[in-house]
């Protein structure tokens, strides 16, 4: 288990914001972080104020807040620009009666309008619900329905995926696009923005009031709404300082989409709380375009994901040399296990260590990380962020000694911990079933030096290219296909994507297995749910292994796939 533990890459930047890790950990207290916010004095809380308007009020309004690039647009916005635009959108929302506590969703590709919308929603005290642009009808409907969303900001291109007739609570759609026909419930985004005042009163909220609702997947049931509150800004600010190591003048690029938690906590909140220039790039992954984004924007701090780094490694060293990446000073990764060879490759080719960080949608912010001032053990997620107590515990809550694998758990609470699973108290309570602890669902061990090493998931959640996919949601879609009788879905190990989705399917009477049918079924999921949830591999079986109560045993499917013993089969049907 620990043969890799000996390898160390020494500290990259001893003079980073964190300084000596052990000292920072020992001397930490959250009140020192609270003092960084204007509400510590004024009592007036709002994430959008702290992230944007405050910089204007304190004389930093002319700094660049957003550099947006995609194949069709290149635009920059100062903090003052974003303050004014988000004020306008807050006024547009108010004109439709949207107010504190309402759930307002955003469903669009990355664009300046997306970021302005999110900030405007926060300014009226409403709760933001981000939807990934690749979601199709069912995925969109499930989330809007569960949350009771009253409004949605979307584009003319994506609007057909919104089943308005099945969403009676969804009264307002703010539509971003051209030539919008007047229609009940449809509000022309650009037209309204044109008339809206750029002055707006901010809705001051409580630290425990709702900020954002991120839907994510578990192994059972539909996606669950993970609810975060404004207080999360303490975690965002502090980790922005000591993990992202943000300093004045930094140009920061987080490659994640705001449809996922990395794209909000670290694609919006953390960088802007620090007044950094935030680079946003739309469009798909391509090594050349991504290196060009670093070169063109003079990126200094870069936060990405293992799948991307593996693809860069696959693209080779030569392409790196075609770009000037000399502005980079700090690189980070999140979302899935970061292979030691990728860390070594990055160190050799970029001349920088890649700093792995561990956290989840539910944790709202980074919890276990590598810091510029701390030695890296390639393959390890690092050590707990100051203020966070992490441990490996057994199923009874007993802390295990070093090098023993068990549940990766975190002492409750911390500022950015989720406060609810929307409409589902039992699901929420499952995470806290051992008093005093949050149970992550990941297994790991801690070595003698206090470094944590990821081992796996205890449930059936799939992690493909860092995107979290619930097998149940995919299976539910699969069985809607007329040829599919039953379906079981697992994550199959994959060298680039970490895992890919593999579906085992038994067919209905009258359907014959064929390659065309596989392609058709996969397309059905892609078009109904989302591209990243579509199985890349399908295998037809006469029968699927089930418990006597009729539940498909994914563990047996996985054992088939990996040629492993299937384990205890005492509950199998026959
Ligand atoms: O299994 C862990 C994996 O991603 C899960 C959380 O996924 P999600 O909520 O989508 O959030 C992803 C980004 C915050 C975790 O339970 N995971 C996340 N980071 C790492 C990781 N696995 C290994 N190493 C990591 N650094």
From TrEMBL:
Residues 473-551 form the AMP-binding enzyme C-terminal domain. PROSITE patterns: AMP_BINDING (PS00455). It comes from the Bacteria. Residues 58-419 form the AMP-dependent synthetase/ligase domain. Its EC number is 6.2.1.1. Pfam families: AMP-binding, AMP-binding_C. It is an enzyme of class 6 (ligase). Keywords: Acetylation, ATP-binding, Ligase, Nucleotide-binding. PANTHER family: ACETYL-COENZYME A SYNTHETASE (PTHR24095), ACETYL-COENZYME A SYNTHETASE 1 (PTHR24095:SF14). This is acetate--CoA ligase. It comes from Paenibacillus vini. The lineage of its organism: Bacteria, Bacillati, Bacillota, Bacilli, Bacillales. The gene is acsA.
